[in-house]
Amino acid sequence: MISSPSPASKLPSKSATSDLLDQSALSTLAQRLVEAARRAGADAADAVAVRGVSQGVEVRDGRVEESERSEGDDVGLRVLVGRRQAVVSTNDISSDGVAKLAERAVAMARVAPDDQYVGLADPSLLAHQFPDLDMLDPVTPSVAELERRAVEAEVAGLAVKGVTKSGGASASAGIGGMVLVTSTGFHGSYLRSSHGISMTAIVGDGTAMERDYDYTSAQHASDLASPASVGRKAGERAVARFGPRKVETCKVPVVYDPRVSNSLVGHLVGAANGASIARKTSFLRDRLGQQLFNKNIRIIDDPLRVRGLRSQPFDAEGVAVRKLAIIDEGALTSWLLDSATARELGLITTGHAHRGVSSSPSPGSYNLHLEAGQPTPAELICDIKQGFYVTDLIGSGVNGVTGDYSRGASGFWIENGEITYAVSEVTIAGHLIEMFRSLSPANDLEFRYGVNAPTLRIEGLTVGGR
């Protein structure tokens, strides 16, 4: 990684960018690793090569505080000898390094413990077509353009009446991707770009200081919110939080703003992860097929969304991916599975394998969203006499084994259907099964993050105050 406080560093030239987009050398390397593993005695093998390059600029008070660039290629080799498995990785393959890496991996596998569930994916499930998901922005911004975006966001935030100082603004861009080659004949690759802008605004001083933020991220720069809107929203949020009050402990409806409502989707999907089910560490382990939500609720995982932040044309085992309704008409329809967890559970992989260069595959999600409902956010809260509107969550007090839920939170108090004064230093507590049953969505779903949900209302949570 190369870091510098000056803006003099540059993103790659046009020819250098073309080189970064050319994965042929990585593909050749991955193929050589798999072939070397077979020659060294592996019964099966796969190789992953990962490329990443990123540039980020941070500004404060109109000046560049840091300009940072990182770039690198990493490779990982997984080998199987019978039912024994080993994974090795490196970022430095010399001319004779391929054979040595493969020999070391095979030697490690021979002394590894037996695991009846390991193995490559069933060849009949491998992807043969790779849809164009429009994941790569053809334009790479210059450092000067990143500076401009960050400065514009900061200026807009400071222009909001009541904002006293900047907590900093940043802009970034990058390219990442992977190549996967298996000894069963799969060979695939993809690249995706990323862009981001963020700003933090501060109101007040000392112990009376409040801060808030906003950010935008997308694969294509044209899909970003404008820097000015990011800064303005950060400033408006900070001003609205100023002078928070405390509330008495009570049991009331709680409404989740879209920037935190996605956490509830995350808790559900984390508990539906096949690895947790296989380990018997999930509160959902006996609930497959059961009704968890009202019948109007659907939660979708879509790896094939065009320009989706987490889209990809195949999983980390080469399995074809597909859109999946994890919750359909309120019922839990599926676990998220890779090949090993599927074998352990007596099922078939759902194409949700993820992997780094130094690890074996494990299940994970792609682009998640909870579908929008009918009421507007205002209609969702109009009948609440006393309630809590959450805009920020603190900590991770969720027990995935029992489903018990307790999070620190801040936001605004609801009185007679209206959002009123700011509230901080409270906790919200309940049980996820009960929370899911009473969940009601508004109609304001937007696709801004990797996990998206509209404004959500949950009945009867305990708000712990003074």
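The record above closes out task 2.4. Task 2.5 opens with a second protein, given below.
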Amino acid sequence: MESWAGHRVPRLPGAGRPVRLYDSARQGVHPSRPRGAATMYVCGITPYDATHLGHAATMIAFDLVNRAWRDAGHPVRYVQNVTDIDDPLLERAARDREDWVVLAMRETALFREDMEALRILPPERYVGAVESIPAIVARVEDLLAGGAAYRLADGSGDVYFDIAASPRFGYESNLDRARMLELFGERGGDPERAGKRDPLDPLLWRGARGGEPAWDGGQVGPGRPGWHIECATIALDLLGTTIDVQGGGNDLLFPHHECSAAHAERLTGEYPFARHYVHAGMIGLAGEKMSKSLGNLVFVSRLRADHVDPMALRLALMADHYRADRQWTDDLLKVAQQRLARWREAVATPVGPAGAPVLERVRDRITDDLDTVGAIAALDAWAEATLAGDRSDPGAPTLIRSTADALLGIAL
């Protein structure tokens, strides 16, 4: 599957810093220590409602990780998936009386356009679930052969992962069993399914049903893959047995990231699957979580069609810390638009206050668990001093423009 076009990232003077990130498994901020190239897998969209502001905020957060690693001198191997076959996609296609393949292709194309507009650095590999089915089947066969998976006895052809085969199950999310069961039922799981060994056992392979798409599963039988094994397979095949960051929104903490880690660790015998499990906060609107079910999604493409500068949108989504659940408001966007205008006015001056300390401050803040609030404050202060008449460094405007671009992804 094609990714989107990238852009040249300026090289900044001096040395970047080690990147510290909050790890959900250890529940604290810890240094990331890539061994050679930094590896990151970010769970992508199910393509039927692209691209809402929650998607955008999540992708911006991991774009900042990518940029900070590159500034520190690390090559980055970044993979993102597209869940282009899943129940929600089929349900939306049926509701709208549309071919699910056409729906997925259209929404994926729109997502790419939005990512380009927001200046998200593209992944090295952008991979669909459908194109990965042969590899997924092989992994399901391995789990069955190793006794970590089982077939239901009801003739459905469904295959489940046995969480008893993962003795550390729960370490990534740090949730108790009651909360796991609650979230499992809310987020695509089937705790009430008869015949399972444990209500929390996740689906690996859904046997073929009439009226649903299905693929040749070899010894597994015809059907289609479960959600969690998709991401585990793609990450293992393209990034190796242990990755530096597994990322996504905090709604993926459980069950998705817990289960995909359990699958990967059982398949490879390596622990942990990811050295950092990193989760971005949710975006709300009018006091409610922005969600498909509530019908209150705000779309990047709609804002772009209304001539909102994508850089203002990006700034607005970075105005609070990436891990915080936060609200989208018209005022938030207005402040970002004003900030962008002030920054552009300031860097358009031929001379400004010293730029090097600002670069170091922005580096310091971004590498401390993506503190965009502090980084933005440093650039705000420089812009205000410039517009107030401080004219001491002729190279500062160019350096500030490069700093905003390289570390924050903001084109001035």
